[in-house]
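Subject: Sanity check before I submit

Could someone independently write out the structure tokens for this chain? I want to compare against mine line by line before I put it in a report. The sequence has 147 residues.
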Amino acid sequence: MTMKTDLLIIGAGPYGLAMAIYAQQHGIKYQVVGEPMGFWQSHMPLGMRLRTHFDWGSEETLSAYLQHKRQNLDDHPVSLECFIDYIKYTSEEYKLSILSDHVERLDYENSLFSARLSSGAQIQAQYVLVATGCYDFKRIPACPLEI
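---
Independent answer below. Compare away.
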């Protein structure tokens, strides 16, 4: 199975999902690949508080989330659990296209990127945004790929 998209977003953390919202709002066909907030859930210490404020997403989503949770903007620093929940809530509100899979290989040939996923699926994309951090990289190239 080969899927085609304009923008492949590798990583489903806050930055990858924020980019997906941006792409969606600008009519860019995209696909996110990754476990939503997986790194944050697996590798951040429980009870951690973030210095970040509730400024991820849009005002409408923020208001809806806060009403849903019966919270207010004064609840900061934001707890890790609240931050993860907020981002997942926002992803669902925007109905983001997220494929819970892992990119095993990324190639560039004939002006297209081709990503092979652990499920065996393939995605071809004109552009790629890597928003994974560097925790799971098996091999980090000496220099960035130049196109």
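---
OP: Matches mine. For the report I'm noting this point. The mean pLDDT is 84.
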